[in-house]
Amino acid sequence: MKISPVLKQAIQSLPPAYFALVMATGIVSIGAHLVGWEAISTTLFWVNKLAYTGLLTLLLLRLVLFFPAVLTDLTSHARGPGFFTVVAGSCVLGIQYQLLAHHSGVATVLWYFALGLWVVLVYAFFVGVIISPEKPTLEKGLNGTWLLITVSIQSLAVLGTLLAAQLPFPTSVILFGAVCAFLLGFVFYLFLISLILYRLLFLPEKAEAFTPPYWIDMGAVAITTLAGATLIERIQAATHTGLADLLPFLKGVSLVAWATATWWIPLIVLLEGWRHGAKKVPVAYTPQYWSLVFPIGMYVVASWRLAEAQRWPFLFPIAQGFSYAALVAWAATFLAMCVHLVKSIRQPAS
Questions:
Q1: Topologically, how does it sit relative to the membrane (predicted)?
Q2: In this predicted structure, what is the pLDDT of residue 349?
Q3: How far apart are CA 336 and CA 328, in angstroms?
Q4: How many domains is the chain built from?
Q5: pLDDT tens-digit readout, 106-127
Q6: Pairwise CA distance, residues 193 & 292, whole Å
Q7: Which residue range forms the structural domain that includes residue 81?
Q8: b vs e for 199-217, b when ≥16 Cβ sit within 10 Å of the residue's Cβ?
């Protein structure tokens, strides 16, 4: 099969983290569903199915045609964590199928795929970076994308919890596994955010280096909140799981996660103002901007689900307010991506 030079270049240079597009589109769609914007939610669902299919095709072609480059990316401190967007994107799309289309079959296939892929990626990445003979400094090798490890784990916990009654295993086993994933993801967050804060507070930070993936500092605890709230609701509804004693602990951790996510938002907004306002870094499209959209959309869904699980109606207006910000951020980023793709296609011919 002959591949055009433009498509071949797109395959070869595909950023590992481009599945953040699927994560962002999916979570904004789910948020729109929760606040009652069904037409928008359905439209974004279809967009997400197309985006996932296209990106997965490009990734598989890259594996076949440029496997050494994929392996180099996977064992890279800077680019390796981006592969966890494939896991999270698959789970977010699975959540859409479960909640919006009520199609447990497709959601289950996506969960199995994401779970198997996560096992391969997490050990390949950690072994690769641990045994690497040359390692970057903390300043060059660590950024917000490392928290995609937490995001991927929590996305597996959320979808697994939603599918607990449909999977061919005892519900108590699935929920126990989801609780373990929830706790593992939270521990990874504590480890990684400590290193990230150390970098931000004690190492020089250039405006150019404060890229959109730092929004995952907030998004990782937002999805932790969602995982906790989902577990709380399912454990309360299920009987004879033996997990009811964990409910006070899950409620406490979920509230800690939501409070932490809320604290991050003003700080990151102020730093974005410093980057683009004071330091005059121009705003130009990059796939990294989907890592900005996803946390905003996730904060909407996490706040809504926490309000439902804890019966705190005063959180609903917060979720509704941020839903507008999430939709505007998605639309602006999607438009910028389309313009960028058109320019990229036309460029070789000019």
A1: Multi-pass membrane protein
A2: 46
A3: 12
A4: 1
A5: 999 999 999 999 999 999 999 9
A6: 17
A7: 5-129+136-349
A8: beeeeebebeebbbbbbbb
Which two tokens mark 156? 């597996």
Q: Which of 225, 186, 249 lies closest to 307 in space, CA to CA?
A: 225
Q: Which two tokens stand for residue 20?
A: 């953040």
Note the pLDDT of residue 12.
85
Which letter does DSSP use for residue 164 in this model? T
Q: How many angstroms separate the CA atoms of 270 and 97, rounded? A: 36
How far is residue 333's CA from residue 325's CA, in Å, rounded to a whole number? 12
Q: Can you tell me the distance from the alpha carbon of 232 to that of 241, in angstroms, rounded to the nearest whole number?
A: 12
Helices 216-237 and 171-202, packing angle to 10 deg: 160
DSSP 254-300: HHHHHHHHHHHHHHHHHHHHIIIIIS-------GGGHHHHHHHHHHH
Answer for the pair 318, 303: CB distance below 8 angstroms, yes or no: yes
- Its pTM surpasses 0.90: yes
* CATH of residue 20: 1.50.10.150
Q: Which two tokens stand for residue 260?
A: 């932490």
What is the number of helices (H) and of strands (E) in the chain? Answer: 13, 0
What does the pLDDT look like over 186-223, one tens digit per residue?
999 999 999 999 999 999 888 888 899 999 999 999 99
CA 122 to chain CA mean position, Å = 15
Residue 348: its pLDDT value, please?
Answer: 54
CA distance 106 to 117: 16
Give the torsion sign (CA, 165, 48, 184, 268).
negative
